[in-house]
Amino acid sequence: MIRAATFAIATLLAAPAVAGGHSKDIVDTAMGAGDFNTLVAAVKAAGLVDTLKGDGPFTVFAPTDAAFAALPEGTVETLLKPENKDQLVAILTYHVVPGKVMSTDLQDDMKATTVQGGDITIDLDNGVMINDASVAAADIAASNGVIHVIDKVILPGS
Predict the structure, then answer these.
(1) Rounded CA gap, 146 and 59, in Å?
(2) Which InterPro entries does its entry note (predicted)?
(3) Residue 97 backbone class (left: φ over 0; alpha: ψ -120 to 50; beta: rest)
(4) 4, 70, 74, 98: which has the fewest Cβ within 10 Å?
(5) How far are the Cα atoms of 55, 90, 134, 157 from residue 51, in angstroms, in the given order?
(6) 150, β-bridge pairs
């Protein structure tokens, strides 16, 4: 899993840059990495593609495919059903913070309000944790924000 995440990060960092930043937005950056297929499918099912391709800036705590696979069996399939769109939107927007928050901006025990409206907690005592998810890679630049790769899907209210 670490090797795949490392490859995905190397792919993200190799994305061509343009004057003033990177040429790919958050969605295209995630699509190009190859380790966020489930996240991209969920963003599409939730109708959030246009939002995350918008001006931003956004900070996305992006769970890998392995993070989604670790959810209880059937969870992803259930969330992707049209009748569960509101729940899917709530989960996905809980992974997004308005503005561009780089790793150097983080402080131990700080809270950040997500687009969903709930707060996430940053813990720097044992590596970088977002709630109970570890940050596997940080500061992946996109034209409209930044991606931090996490190893777990974080859920509102947990």
Answers:
(1) 5
(2) Adhesion/Biosynth-related (IPR050904), FAS1_dom_sf (IPR036378), FAS1_domain (IPR000782)
(3) beta
(4) 74
(5) 8, 14, 26, 23
(6) 63, 135
- For the chain, domains (ranges, CATH) are 2-150 (2.30.180.10)
Q: Which residues are bridge partners to 113 per DSSP?
A: 119
pLDDT tens-place string over residues 75-120: 999 999 999 999 999 999 999 999 999 999 999 999 999 999 999 9
85 Cβ neighbours under 8 A, 6+ residues apart: 45, 46, 47
Q: Return d(Cα 40, Cα 84) in angstroms, integer.
A: 17
Measured between alpha carbons, how far is 56 from 97 in angstroms, rounded to an integer? 10
Return the structure tokens found at 133.
């998810």
